[in-house]
Amino acid sequence: MQVKDLVRVFVKGGVISPGEFLKIIHIAENLGSSEIHFGSRQDIMFSVDESNLDQLGQTFSSINAQYEINTFNFQNISSSYVTVDLIQGKSWLVSHVYINIIDSFDYEPALRINIVDANQGLVPLFTGNINFIASSQDNYWYVYLRFKHLSADRWQVPVLVYSDDIAKVAKAIEDFAPEANGMDYQDVSKRLVEEVKMNYQPVTDELVFSDTIFPYYEGINRASEGKYWLGLYWRSNRYNTAILKAICERCLMTEVGKICLTPWKSFVIKGIFEKDRIGWEKLLGRFGMNLRHSALEMNWHLPALDREALNLKIFLVRTLDQQDISTYGLTFTIKTTEDITLFTSIVIEKDLENSGEVPLYHILYSKDFNPNSGVYFRYATDVNKAVIAPLLIDLSKMYFDQLAEETPEAPTQKIVNLMEKMLFQCTNCLTIYDEQYGDDRQQIPAGTPFSKLPDTYECPVCGSGKASFAQMV
User: Fold this and answer.
1) Per-residue pLDDT for the chain (473 aa), expressed as one digit of tens each?
2) Domain-by-domain residue ranges, the chain?
3) Quick one: the chain helix, strand, coil %, rounded to 5?
4) What is d(CA 310, CA 334) in angstroms, rounded to the nearest whole number?
5) Smaller CB count within 10 Å for the chain: N or C?
6) 469 — phi, psi (to 5°)?
7) What are phi and psi of 369, to 5 degrees?
8) How many CA atoms lie within 13 A of 197 on its CB side?
9) Considering the entire predicted model, what is its pTM?
10) Is the CA virtual torsion 283, 287, 292, 295 positive or negative?
11) DSSP result, 320-368
């Protein structure tokens, strides 16, 4: 059996043109791969026979894309560009703002960088080492740092950074080499403000997390201006190159300029014209592509190409589906290695210290079931596969029980208020006299009881006399 090497192609911000994507697919095929995979950092991956590696450099020289083989020396920039037109976000954070920021990165980051809107629930906020999160002020961003060598999970820089300076700030922080130089968060922040020439403002308002719900993003959906967007998902994360080539070619034929990758091993095509919608449906039908995956199976984060994690997910999804359990609003991670950054509300974590033949798992859930909290509690320890689904059912019930809702005015109080209001209605035209408002047209001041109206009072609409009014009950 030949050894397979994994090629990882960086797609800055998860945004790629159909033409560039098509070139990558052709390269994968020329190197012997018939499948493409997506990573949780919105990157593209494919396997290559070891015997074909010597051709890799030559084939990639034809496109402007960074790649690595089996290593993680560099990192892809993750962004929530994919959510524009799908999920309502900051009004100022439109497509060209994302693109300008992403294009301003003229170096290969070794640190994980996130550029995200907190108003959406599809792309995680804090999985980067440097996390730029859009503020309510146009073109200004919060900066949160998260380094492995420090005990704190994340730390907020006390300034907001301007959009045009994001790449400069990220490069400066990387050049500081915080881990190698033993710097803490305060050291990094101090040097950033003192040494980097940038446009910034002090933080005056704390970042507020909106009640974001993980969206159902599959299928053809109407967008603004009469256009459509298409979300595509394969549960195995093994995308046949023939299908992807047809999709890219269809994009080029119908003037679709961008393909957007998600952190959930799926992708979105935006800007489909009404006249082209039927053609897209025919293409999907021709390849037998399923657009009706349940929301239950689309909200899982798994390590790329991890057969053990995928099999466990399939087992759990089938079990939960048979129980008719709702997981709307929840997201799940299956953690089988240490090198996974958690960004979901529930985690099934394999006990890596267990040496027995049967794998055991820990079940964790995030504070308030909010994946952005960064705080996890252990719900169960060392449970076997058969017990996981019932525990997830219990957690889903706990989630719905703790959901906060606005407390409506008590119905009994509403009835009392209504009874205390004296309303009189004209029996001829049904016009209402409300004592609370009076009748401006006849100089009757607000608060005048119906009994105090002069006998000459007439209905302002039909002219019927006061005797024609009856109290409403």
Assistant:
1) 344 688 899 999 999 999 999 999 998 998 889 999 999 999 999 988 776 666 666 666 666 778 888 878 899 999 999 999 888 888 899 999 999 999 999 999 999 999 999 989 899 999 999 999 999 999 999 999 999 888 767 899 999 999 999 999 999 999 999 988 989 999 999 999 999 999 999 998 888 877 667 888 889 998 877 899 999 998 888 999 999 999 999 999 999 999 999 999 999 999 999 999 999 999 998 988 888 787 788 889 988 888 899 999 999 998 888 887 778 889 999 999 887 888 899 999 999 888 888 899 999 999 889 888 888 999 999 999 999 999 999 999 899 887 765 555 555 554 445 445 678 888 887 788 888 888 877 888 888 888 889 988 888 877 888 988 888 76
2) 4-75+215-293, 87-202, 296-402, 411-471
3) 30, 25, 45
4) 9
5) N
6) -90, 140
7) 60, 25
8) 0
9) 0.80
10) negative
11) HHHTT---TT--EEEE-SS-----SSEEEEE-TT--SSS--EEEEEEGG
Phi and psi at residue 222, to the nearest 5°: -75, 135
Q: Within 10 A of 471 (CB to CB), how many other CB atoms are there?
A: 10
Query: Six-digit token pair at 170?
Result: 């990220």
**Cα–Cα dist 30/114, whole Å:** 32
From the list 172, 148, 149, 150, the residue with the least C-alpha distance to 159 is: 172
Which of 142, 84, 87 lies closest to 114 in space, CA to CA? 142
Residue-wise pLDDT tens digits, 151-179: 767 899 999 999 999 999 999 999 999 98
What does the alpha-carbon distance between residue 72 and residue 70 come to, in Å, rounded to a whole number?
7
Q: How far apart are CA 234 and CA 221, in angstroms?
A: 18
pLDDT per position as a tens digit, 233-255: 988 889 999 999 999 999 999 99
Give me the architecture of the 296-402 domain, per CATH.
2-Layer Sandwich (3.30)
Place of tokens 């790629």: 16
**HSE of 236 in the Cβ direction (CA atoms, 13 Å)?**
6
Write the DSSP string, 388-445: HHHHHHHHHHHHHHH-----PPPHHHHHHHHHHS-EEEETTT--EEETTT-BGGGTB-
What CATH code is assigned to 411-471?
A: 2.20.28.10
Give kind and range of the element (H or E) at residue 122: none
Reading the block at residue 334, the tokens are 């299956």
What is the CATH number assigned to the segment(s) 4-75+215-293?
3.90.480.10
Q: How far apart are CA 455 and CA 466, in angstroms?
A: 6
